[in-house]
């Protein structure tokens, strides 16, 4: 049985059906990328997995457990968005520790756990800095550390690199992938950038207008596009 199993998932906003009867599975430790043009439903699908968008029908199961109707904080999911949703008036340490303080962990346990993820994202020495004292890439690493510190069973990343300049973006791609592999963390990554998807993913789900039109390894999507849309989107006509 797959680690994540999504069955006949449907989401509407009023009259607008974003996706209907979507099915897919994800294995434990897999890095899956939802790739597709703007407006195709990537963020809505990710937010549905996170429990931030209640779905209209279907089932989301993780590790054999039906989480479809669980609250976001019960799901064991960590999430990072495009814009760094850090608390501006809190230090790096306090931003990362926030989730653990909510869980009422002991101070020494919090210090240990925060130090671990700070080392993981390579931000040693920045603990007492404030977000405005950091670069964009550093802020996204704080956001990543904050998502990781609660030891999520799934990591959801919604265009976390899109606001960064090209050089930092490339370095962070590698860093995210290295951390994900080290933790063997099941990850769903959203992007509209083919190159990002090609270089980072175990598997790509290519989406168009609310449908997964093809899923497979980066190589197979690129070399064996299922239709004209996939071929065009993967850059065969550029
Ligand atoms: P993507 O992330 O691929 O760019 P989205 O998931 O953001 O696409 O959007 C998919 C569709 O859902 C769009 O038609 C968008 O207008 C609609 N949508 C997304 N969020 C909302 C919302 N909160 N309320 C109403 N419609 C929404
Ligand atoms: Mg989006």
Automatic annotation (TrEMBL):
Keywords: ATP-binding, Nucleotide-binding, Transport. Coiled coil: none annotated. The keyword Repressor does not apply. Residues 4-234 form the ABC transporter domain. GO terms for molecular function: ATP binding. This is ABC transporter ATP-binding protein. It comes from Neptunomonas phycophila.
């Amino acid at each position: 049985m797959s680690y994540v199993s999504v069955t006949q998932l449907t989401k509407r906003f009023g009259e607008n059906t974003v996706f209907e009867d979507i099915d897919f599975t994800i294995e434990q430790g897999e890095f899956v990328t939802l790739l597709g043009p703007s407006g195709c439903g990537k963020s809505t699908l990710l937010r549905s997995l996170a429990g931030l968008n209640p779905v209209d029908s279907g089932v989301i199961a993780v590790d054999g457990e039906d989480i479809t109707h669980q609250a976001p904080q019960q799901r064991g999911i960590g999430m990072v968005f495009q814009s760094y949703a850090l608390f501006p008036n809190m230090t790096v340490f306090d931003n990362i520790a926030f989730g653990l303080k909510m869980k009422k962990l002991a101070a020494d346990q919090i210090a240990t756990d925060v130090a671990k993820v700070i080392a993981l994202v390579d931000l040693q020495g920045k603990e007492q800095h404030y977000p405005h004292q950091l670069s964009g890439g550093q802020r996204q690493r704080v956001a990543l550390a904050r998502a990781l510190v609660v030891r999520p069973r799934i990591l959801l990343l919604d265009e976390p690199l899109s606001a960064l300049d090209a050089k930092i973006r490339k370095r962070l791609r590698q860093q995210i992938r290295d951390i994900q592999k080290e933790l063997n963390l099941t990850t769903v990554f959203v992007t509209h950038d083919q190159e990002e998807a090609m270089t980072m993913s175990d598997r790509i789900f290519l989406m168009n207008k609310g449908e997964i039109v093809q899923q497979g390894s980066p190589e197979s999507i690129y070399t064996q596009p299922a239709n004209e849309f996939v071929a065009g989107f993967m850059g065969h006509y550029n």
